[in-house]
Write a structure and sequence with these properties.
With 276 residues, the chain is α/β, with parallel strands linked by helices. Helices cover 35% and strands 16% of the residues. The chain starts with a strand and ends with a helix.
């Protein structure tokens, strides 16, 4: 597995899937990037460069735990771009990884060709997801056999009386079948310190990030899942308004992992935007 060195000397690993023009794919979590797989077959169209964020997968644990902070991870992406010798790179980011990619585009706009944000987190631009929005989306699944238990767990989490996050996992999937359950289990974060430090104080500067994005001419795709409680379509739509040149796609029947729910539809949408 190839490696590169971060600015602070931490040895970081990355995976390569497919051939063709490269696109850097930033995982969410922070968790082992293997949950992305080859993004439903996107590797047949583009060469996917998928880093393991520091302290996850095969990347080393840093000496300084504060370097897990989202804003500091931006320079790991820049180090990877330089390591690969790419003057300009396309970026694809999923979930919390979109916060890294967004700050990267704000900080290094000239180094980004196209930016694809897949069911993105929105903390970098300060757009909250309300409990009522999540509740309304959840109720769209009321005819599912797993709904009663999952909805009760969601209500308890919203009220601050519960913390059974595994119980609400079905809400993040377009269908809660055996492949989705295996994918969920494999994608659990293992480095909880990295998770805790990711959004620590100073990790986000929404006002300045939004100002930088307003002047960023990079074409942006925002892909939302119809049923995604983590990144609801309405929230992703608002996120898109922060960019001068954005395209919104809401994938029908999809949750937080659209390449798992309908790989063909996902790959078609992303290749139409990224090319290849």
């Amino acid at each position: 597995m190839p490696t590169f060195t971060a600015p602070d000397g931490t040895l970081l690993a990355y995976r390569v899937h497919g051939d063709g023009d490269p696109v850097l794919c930033i995982p969410g979590g922070p968790t082992d990037s293997r949950y992305l797989g080859d993004l439903g077959g996107l590797s047949a169209h583009r060469r996917l460069i998928v880093p393991d964020l520091r302290g996850t997968g095969r990347s080393a644990v840093p000496e300084d735990p504060s370097s897990y902070r989202c804003d500091r991870l931006v320079e790991d992406v820049e180090a990877l771009r330089e390591h690969l010798g790419l003057p300009v790179t396309d970026l694809l980011a999923h979930s919390a990884g979109a916060n890294i990619a967004t700050q990267y585009a704000a900080r290094h706009p000239g180094n980004v060709g196209r930016l694809a944000l897949i069911t993105p987190g929105t903390r970098a631009v300060g757009i909250p997801v309300t409990a009522e929005t999540r509740r309304e989306l959840a109720l769209l699944r009321k005819n599912e056999p797993w709904f009663p238990a999952a909805f009760a767990a969601l209500e308890a989490i919203t009220d601050g009386t519960g913390s059974d996050w595994d119980a609400i996992a079905p809400f993040f999937c377009g269908r809660w079948d055996a492949p989705a359950q295996r994918h969920h289990a494999a994608g659990r974060p293992s480095n909880m310190e990295a998770v805790a430090q990711f959004g620590a104080e100073g990790a986000f500067d929404p006002e300045n990030t939004r100002a930088a994005l307003a002047a960023c001419e990079v074409p942006v795709l925002l892909l939302a899942g119809e049923f995604d409680l983590n990144s609801p379509p309405g929230t992703v739509t608002e996120f898109g308004r922060q960019f001068p040149d954005s395209t919104l796609v809401v994938q029908p029947g999809a949750g937080h992992y659209p390449w798992i729910d309908d790989a063909g539809r996902f790959v078609a949408a992303t290749t139409a935007f990224l090319g290849g």
